[in-house]
TrEMBL record:
Family annotation (CDD domains): Sigma70_r4
Species classification: Bacteria, Bacillati, Actinomycetota, Actinomycetes, Kitasatosporales
Protein name, entry field: RNA polymerase sigma-70 factor
Matching SUPFAM superfamilies: NTF2-like, Sigma2 domain of RNA polymerase sigma factors, Sigma3 and sigma4 domains of RNA polymerase sigma factors
Family under the similarity heading: Belongs to the sigma-70 factor family. ECF subfamily.
Subunit structure: Interacts transiently with the RNA polymerase catalytic core formed by RpoA, RpoB, RpoC and RpoZ (2 alpha, 1 beta, 1 beta' and 1 omega subunit) to form the RNA polymerase holoenzyme that can initiate transcription.
Keywords tagged on the record: Sigma factor, Transcription, Transcription regulation
InterPro entries: ECF_Sigma-70_Domain, NTF2-like_dom_sf, RNA_pol_sigma-70_dom, RNA_pol_sigma-70_ECF, RNA_pol_sigma70_r2, RNA_pol_sigma70_r4_t2, RNA_pol_sigma_r2, RNA_pol_sigma_r3/r4-like
Domain RNA polymerase sigma-70 region: 17-78
Any single Pfam family the record assigns to this protein: Sigma70_r2
Superkingdom of source: Bacteria
Domain spans labelled RNA polymerase sigma factor 70 region 4 type: 112-162
Length: 301
């Protein structure tokens, strides 16, 4: 049993028992709550038609089914993302406290890492997720993907090296991260340009994902002055009047919800190092906010 699974109730269906593992696997592979839920629905429908007596290991069977469904969807999604308008960011997820408190598990669902995982080939991403997030052995992954174990070991090594070379390194613990995020929230809410700039690292970079549906920067923004002025400019627009920034746990990290009248218009995730914000990821695409807008939001990563 992985660290994300709970103890099953007696007689519970294996799909329900392992749903959290299945959701977490598909979400890390796809970066989309909507696509993940579609994959789980397809897997559930297939599972209903299976002769359970023929399945010796339901957990392995279900992980294999979900992984392959996610691989198929990811392969087709890559072509769509090549035509995406502006920077692509993953669909944000409101995560449960136990996920946020597990440092290793939280890291594998962070916005920054999901962005890096987009640069992996689909099979590399599947191997990385199963190995790094859920501690599957190379032999188990080989069975899931129907590939020789030595091949899986090579893929795992290549994927880990690729990710390690590109993933941002943040040194702030949860308390410090929360403190900086709160100070950033207050500075933005108050429209205080100098205070916002003081919290931004000299090499800060901000990405905003509007998907061509709403106004967002088409390219990453760099530097404290550029990032701060753009952020405050967006918040000062008439269309942003009466919006609020609310603290939330987004992808297992302290983050912010941009809300208006109780409706979420966007999310912010901050990468913090040495007390300064080095990365800002802003999700504004309304198509990617449906999960966050639902009451409570999914919390199963």
């Amino acid at each position: 049993m992985t660290g994300t699974e709970r103890a099953p109730d007696a007689g519970e269906d294996p799909f329900v028992e392992h749903r959290r593992l299945l959701f977490g696997t598909a979400y890390r592979m796809l970066g989309s709550v909507a696509d993940t839920e579609d994959v789980l629905q397809d897997a559930w429908l297939a599972w209903r038609g299976v002769d359970r007596e023929e399945v010796r290991n339901p957990r392995a069977y279900l992980v294999r089914a979900v992984t392959n469904l996610a691989l198929n969807r990811l392969t087709s999604a890559r072509a769509v993302r090549e035509r995406y308008v502006g920077p692509w960011l993953p669909e944000p997820l409101l995560t449960s406290p136990d996920v946020a408190e597990d440092a290793e598990l939280a890291d594998t669902v962070s916005t920054a890492l999901l962005v890096v995982l987009e640069t992996l080939a689909p099979v590399e991403r599947a191997v990385f997720v199963l190995r790094e997030a859920f501690a599957f052995s190379h032999a188990e992954i080989a069975q899931v993907l129907d590939r020789p174990e030595p091949t899986v070991r090579q893929i795992a090594h290549r994927a880990r090296r690729h990710v390690d070379a590109r993933r941002p390194r943040y040194d702030a613990g949860p308390e410090r991260h929360h403190e900086v995020t709160e100070r950033f929230r207050a500075a933005c809410a108050g429209g205080d340009l100098n205070r916002v700039m003081e919290l931004l690292a000299p090499d800060v970079v901000a990405w905003s994902d509007g998907g061509g549906k709403v106004t967002a920067a088409r390219r990453p923004l760099s530097g404290p002055d550029h990032v701060a002025r753009w952020l405050l400019g967006v918040l000062a627009k008439p269309t942003s009047a009466d919006t609020t920034l609310e603290p939330a746990v987004v992808n297992a990290e302290p983050g912010l919800l941009i809300t208006l009248g109780g409706r979420t218009l966007g999310t912010m995730s901050l990468g913090v190092t040495q007390g300064l914000v080095h990365h800002v990821h802003i999700q504004l695409n309304p198509d990617k906010l449906l999960g966050v807008q639902r009451a409570g939001g999914p919390a199963t990563a």
